[in-house]
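Anyone up for a design puzzle?
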């Protein structure tokens, strides 16, 4: 969608946040230090768009600029840069197909064709009933599970034409299909299994029945217990770990792991897809408590957890 296209749209003369949204906007602004309220421009534009039938008229951008004491052009720059903002009326469900290189290599051409065939519209158009708008976007940031399509706020990953058509049909019937990987993956890793972080205490290819606990942001000197509380403490310990004295991990500092110790806890059954693929390398589970503090891998791992899992 181009700025030119937006100028062809009939623009409302005014925009004002509802009282509830204004209160929410003030709470968002209060999260930023004095003088830095412009940092709230993205969430406020998003709030305005959600209030205004999923598109952002110029009057809404002006209202955000006024609220944040920003030059209007600065707000226009933000609103025209991000594809998440619609500057013309959009269908109720916005289907954003990623066609950047990883998704293209994994079949996004077929996904685009399936969208156009199923919805009966071309890229950039909205269905006659106003239900779906189809758009092409750059990388959605979930490349490992390519090809990826975003519909509304949800990502649908590991798609092919048939799965995509089924998804659109379900959404058209008013259903809410399960978001995320459509082949059961719950993490981002190579389709044949993880090539890094192989010592995870769960199978990243398996469909979760219960959500994993996401560790809060760790402090610099906080050990990161990646292993669930019920699981036994793993046996492989890095020398000089600095693990608390008296803990099982501390007792094993510097010890060479035996073959038996290096075996991970029993793994959950793998998904059908995972069973069909090459087995994941069996390596020892290395607890975060046993890691030298300076590595900070626990933080990286915590951050690598999907949001919804997203
Ligand atoms: S290239 Fe499609 S999600 Fe990154």
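Challenge accepted. My sequence:
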């Amino acid at each position: 969608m181009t700025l030119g296209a937006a100028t062809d749209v009939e623009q409302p003369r005014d925009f004002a946040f509802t009282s509830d949204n204004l209160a929410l906007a003030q709470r968002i602004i209060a999260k930023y230090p004095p003088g830095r309220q412009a940092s709230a421009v993205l969430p406020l534009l998003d709030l305005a768009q959600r209030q205004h039938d999923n598109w952002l008229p110029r009057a809404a951008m002006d209202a955000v600029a006024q609220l944040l004491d920003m030059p209007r052009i600065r707000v226009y720059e933000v609103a025209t840069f991000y594809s998440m903002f619609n500057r013309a009326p959009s269908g109720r469900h916005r289907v954003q197909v990623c066609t950047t290189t990883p998704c293209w290599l994994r079949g996004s051409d077929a996904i685009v064709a399936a969208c156009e065939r199923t919805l009966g519209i071309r890229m950039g158009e909205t269905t006659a009933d106003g239900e779906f708008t189809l758009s092409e976007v750059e990388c959605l940031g979930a490349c490992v599970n390519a090809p990826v399509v975003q519909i509304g706020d949800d990502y649908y990953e590991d798609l092919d034409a048939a799965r995509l058509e089924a998804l659109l049909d379900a959404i058209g019937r008013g259903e809410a299909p399960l978001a995320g990987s459509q082949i059961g993956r719950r993490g981002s890793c190579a389709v044949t299994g993880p090539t890094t972080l192989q010592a995870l205490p769960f199978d990243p290819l398996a469909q979760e029945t219960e959500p994993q606990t996401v560790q809060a942001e760790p402090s610099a000197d906080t050990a990161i217990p990646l292993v669930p509380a019920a699981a036994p403490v793993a046996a492989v310990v890095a020398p000089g770990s600095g693990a608390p004295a008296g803990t099982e991990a501390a007792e094993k500092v510097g010890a060479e792991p035996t073959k038996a110790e290096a075996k991970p806890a029993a793994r959950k059954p793998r998904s059908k897809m995972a069973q069909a693929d090459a087995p994941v390398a069996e390596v020892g589970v290395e607890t975060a408590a046993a890691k030298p503090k300076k590595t900070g891998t626990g933080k990286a791992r915590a951050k690598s957890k999907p949001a919804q899992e997203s």
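A detail worth pointing out: Residues 211-310 have pLDDT under 50 and may be disordered.
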